[in-house]
Amino acid sequence: MSKDISVVKQVTACLDRLSGFCDTGYLLAVHIRYTRPSLMFKTYPKDWLDHYSEHGFMMVDPVVGWAMTQEGTASWDDLAANDPAGVVAAARDFGLSHGVSFAIGPNTSRTIGSVTRSTAFAADELDTMRAIITEIHDVTEGFDHLPPRIQDGLRDLG
Q1: What values do phi and psi take at 69, rounded to 5?
Q2: What is the pTM of this model?
Q3: Fewer CB within a 10 Å sphere, N or C end of the chain?
Q4: Taking a C-beta distance cutoff of 8 angstroms, is the pair 24, 100 a contact?
Q5: Is 85 in contact with 64 (CB distance < 8 Å)?
């Protein structure tokens, strides 16, 4: 098996592991350059994704604002104080509770991972999820230089 194909298998395994923690979904925007991610993986309910898009929430989402300017881990509850548009409250209305976001990598190639679950995450679970998202970030570094078939294989996972 070529190294390139193993990238798709490795990301697949990471996404499967991440899914095990997130009964209400997650979203990963991988290697954001300028304002566009190279890869996007999302398991949030379609009605939430549609609502988020229809209301232009990306422009006012405190999670996005925090993650594009900080590196680390933040609870959505902690970010809700800077949420005049009510994005976090709206997410809760769609069943996305106990949200936590991770910002990984430099500003020039940031990966944002947001995870949700119906119950609170334990600290060790957050550590594990951060490691999973970091692994996806690291293994997809240089995405633009991968062969087109591998890029397509990774995109198909989203």
Answers
A1: -120, -10
A2: 0.93
A3: N
A4: no
A5: no
Integer distance in angstroms from the first to the last C-alpha of the chain? 23
CA-closest candidate to residue 126, choices 96, 100, 94, 146: 100
Retrieve residue 15's tokens.
């996404």
Encoded tokens for 16: 């499967």
Is residue 126 within 8 A of residue 100, CB to CB? The reply is: yes
Q: Per residue of the chain (158 residues), what is the pLDDT tens digit?
A: 455 668 999 999 999 999 999 999 999 999 999 889 999 999 999 999 999 999 999 999 999 999 999 999 999 999 999 999 999 999 999 999 999 999 999 999 999 999 999 999 999 999 999 999 999 999 999 888 888 988 999 999 98
Q: How far apart are CA 15 and CA 24, in angstroms?
A: 14
117 neighbors 24 (Cβ within 8 angstroms): yes
